[in-house]
Amino acid sequence: MLFYLIEIVTLIAINVIFALGLNIQFGYVGVLNVGYIAFVAIGAYITAVTSLGNTENGFTQLYILHWNVPWPLPVLFGGLAAAAVGLLLATVTLRNLRADYLAIATLSLAQVLYTIVANNDSLFNGAQGLAGVPRPFDAQLADASQEVYGLVFLIIAVIFAAILFLATRQLQRSPLGRFMRAVREDEVVAESFGRRPLVARLAALGIGCFFAGIGGGLLIEYQTAFGSQAWFPLETFIIFAAVIVGGTGNNLGAVVGAAIVLVGINESTRFLPASIPSELVGPGRGVLIGVLLILFLRFRPQGLLPETRVRLYGRRIETPDNPELPTPPQTADATTS
Amino acid sequence: MHILIQSIGYGLVTASVIAIGAVGLSLQFGVTNFVNFAYGEFLTLGAYIGYFVSTQAHFNVFVGIVAAMAVTGLLAVLLDQVVFEPFIRGRPNLVVLLIVTVALSLILQNLYQIVFTTDFRRYAAPSNTQYSVGDINFTGSQLLIIAIAITAIGALQILLKYTKLGKAMRAMSDSADLAQASGINTRLVTRAVWLISGMFAGIGGVVLAINVYNVQPTLGNSYLFLFFAAVIMGGIGKPWGALISAVVLGIVIEVSGAYINAAYKGGLAFLILILVLLLRPRGLFSSRRRTV
């Protein structure tokens, strides 16, 4: 039971990192990254290939780089690699000013990366993925029991999540964060203050993908293995569900959402009666997440913890009566009929 | 040289499949102004219907297509009424609508896994007779695919150009507000657009199943980004642009597939998409300046 508890809290901490990153993109500035999970995968794979070295850890597998840099550099590399790919993609697509172009491009990127990684063994060992990834402090804790090591990793994950949470809060209060939300609310007004909306979007995308990469790095170190199955598109929507259920634009909401969605959906299925065939559990979960997303967007778009306006001059400005989700960068006159 | 010519022939077949999907997607995108990320799932349903009617029940392939069109067309209208309509009423929000379609895609794909299982269903080819057109060998099924694509897109073109409904659709595509102001029942036109877009998904699904010989729950979704690529290349809301782009994409994919690892075919299509976004953000055939 204790081990189970340690495991679930660790997974929540990692998912909080994912949700915070997606919240910066989707919640702060309103860009839609439908292929978010691909950036998690990039982080995970880069972390693995920069820490595995030549040892292969007893597994016969092919991969690139073969670096072996000391921890926590691999995780950092994972984050940077994800951010670099995200920025590259965003530079190309965001010039179009429409939310759907980026959504299409990220979805396509995720699908293409998935096919290439799964079918090319020389990159990250193909569909099987990488295994035997070194865990942090493995040598020092070689004799530790499963529980003790789990606890150490839990602390590591929580520290990472806490640092990133504080950084996000700092960002939210910074001029850049205010500018991001201004772009989300009204791009033209934001632009009239002399700053380019594109910068806000690029920053949000880069930072969000960095978070995804860091989380992915921690995930692969925790599980010590990561294959194609781990980044099915479904996983992206667990993170979307976390952000939307928790409260779009609210950092605390991202934390709460990650905990609720992950525990509620992922873990409750463990206790289903045995009469339900196991192959139905995964798809059933997918349907449930989809329905949850639509219902929340329809009936409580602001989420459980609505975004509160940041203090200005020491006064707290309350959320307006009709809290809206981020308005798109440019709603070319959508059908009103 | 022979490989090149032959793969151009296969390219035309792939292009026909992409064109049907892209035209259906482009029509709806142009009129309702949001992308439907669940369109791949519409095709998958069409493919399953075609499989049950033609392969399981041994009806003619055209009966399968008509049945698939009916079912996916109704599904599209139903989803528009039940799911999208409430979101569009009031102040529509593009980002929210996009996530709703993505969530729908997730729901439908998982429902197919539950209802139809993840098994690969083998779709029986309508005709395996070999025909030679010039230097290119086609099977009867492949010629059928090309013929169906030409017929369907030609019919849509006639509808758009010469009927009142088609004119209303084009008017809405230019500006929904102006169309409404000039007395067009935009609600009704939107419904018709969803119906036609869904019917194209039905045709596309069956054609896709004929082309790859099997049906499984992620069939349509795996082609979705090719449709997107064709739609963006062709310019949003321009069915003819989507058609020409589909031909380009289909030929590039199949010709490259003859020389490089098949896994990279999709990567190449993605590269083309990125290049188009970089160089011609409004599509290859854009005539007017970008409006902000």
From TrEMBL, chain A:
Membrane topology, from the record: Multi-pass membrane protein
Membrane is among the record's keywords: yes
Top-level taxonomic group: Bacteria
GO cellular component: plasma membrane
Transmembrane segments: 6-24, 31-53, 73-94, 101-118, 148-168, 202-220
UniProt entry tagged with the keyword Transmembrane helix: yes
Compartments, record wording: Cell membrane
Keywords: Cell membrane, Membrane, Transmembrane, Transmembrane helix
GO molecular function: branched-chain amino acid transmembrane transporter activity
Family matches, as Pfam families: BPD_transp_2 (PF02653)
Stored InterPro entries: ABC_transp_permease (IPR001851), LivM-like (IPR043428)
Region of interest called Disordered, as start-end residue ranges on this chain: 316-337
Protein name: Branched-chain amino acid ABC transporter permease
Species of provenance: Candidatus Amunia macphersoniae
Upper lineage: Bacteria, Bacillati, Candidatus Dormiibacterota, Candidatus Dormibacteria, Candidatus Aeolococcales
UniProtKB/TrEMBL annotation, chain B:
Alphabetically ordered keywords of this record: Amino-acid transport, Cell inner membrane, Cell membrane, Membrane, Transmembrane, Transmembrane helix, Transport
GO molecular function: L-isoleucine transmembrane transporter activity; L-leucine transmembrane transporter activity; L-phenylalanine transmembrane transporter activity; L-valine transmembrane transporter activity
Similarity comment text for this entry: Belongs to the binding-protein-dependent transport system permease family. LivHM subfamily.
Organism: Candidatus Amunia macphersoniae
GO terms (BP aspect): D-alanine transmembrane transport; L-alanine transport; L-isoleucine import across plasma membrane
Location of this chain's protein in the cell: Cell membrane
Protein name: Branched-chain amino acid ABC transporter permease
PANTHER family registered for this protein in UniProt: BRANCHED-CHAIN AMINO ACID TRANSPORT SYSTEM PERMEASE PROTEIN LIVH, HIGH-AFFINITY BRANCHED-CHAIN AMINO ACID TRANSPORT SYSTEM PERMEASE PROTEIN LIVH
Transmembrane intervals: 12-39, 59-82, 94-116, 136-160, 192-213, 219-236, 268-285
Main location as per UniProt: membrane
Origin superkingdom: Bacteria
One matching Pfam family: BPD_transp_2
Cellular component GO terms held in the UniProt record: plasma membrane
Protein topology in the membrane: Multi-pass membrane protein
